[in-house]
Here is the input.
Amino acid sequence: MPDTSFASPTNAQDAPSTHAALWGRALRIFAWLSFLAQTIIIGTGGAVRLTGSGLGCSEWPLCTPESLVPIYADQGIHGIIEFGNRVMTGVVGIIALAVLLLVLARVGGRRLVFSALRFAASGIVAAGVVFLIMTLIGLPATPFAMGALLITVIAAIVRSLRLATERRDLVILAWLVLAGVVAQALVGGITVLTGLNPFIVGFHYVSSLLLVCVTAAFLVRLYSPAGPRESAVPKWFTILTHVTGLALAVTIVFGVLTTGSGPHSGDADVLRHGFDATVLAHVHSWPGYILAVLVLALTVSAWALRLEPRRWLLVLVIAILVQVAVGVWQAREGLPPVLVGIHMVLASLSAAAYTVVVLHLKKPVDSQQ
Here is the structure.
């Protein structure tokens, strides 16, 4: 039967209180906002790189040695774009925190919420102490402070899972998003401090893409009932789906390497070395075409056998085909920044759609489907 703690009521007898319904509606709204924000920040991060604004703010977490915001005339539009992306990181973090607190309130009430808030306060204090110590001994203070905050978040996750008695799947996913945002802020700072190292920039993008997938997974589980699940597809279909996921991962990795070796380094004075972008572009296309064939095969099979994930496979095949078309177009046009940015966002949406497909390989044990 449906989990009425998170699913919408189906009749008056099962309807939760008005207060609980409002909290549930708020959770769904913020869960969608979290997914949208994680997708948008990939676009703003891409804009930083594609406009050469990666060092528009020369410092981190400050924008300049004297100011949190751009103040120098020579920073121009680059400073505004880079600072705008940093502001978006704060928005993403606030939304992730709201989702977490709403989940904890629904699962464990005030006890879980207050426990998380205590850890938050402890983390802020710990980060402040570490920042002060690192400043006094002359080491980079902010990365160490962010590391202390991340350790506190991990401790809070363990505590929440010990206290939660239901919907631990939602608790874990909500915490992963918040912890990921904190980690992303740390990686973003390292990216600036290392002068836009291409491998760190690539890792930064892949991490953002994974957060899009986690928020998509949260949405799927939020609308799904709790309880044990069983396979909804034949074993061969599950294996083929995971092989498709491997092809998707390889395609994304080579795409990151290709972009990192191309003309869009993030700043006019940053040069990329080590790989031939032209060769990588061809290598990147090979798993991309394999991926398109695999997704098409899965989609045809799912609709022929009327399998559970068939509708989401249709979404995925459309996303992959559009992605391939944009990839070919941008290669022929000499990698215009707008098309490269669209390609980056589409990659995250394709990965999110694949995540939803995987989560539909199983269904609740008592499902009538």
Remarks:
- Residues 143 and 190 are 8 Å apart (CA to CA).
- The chain has two domains: 17-226, 228-369.
- Residues 228-369 form one domain.
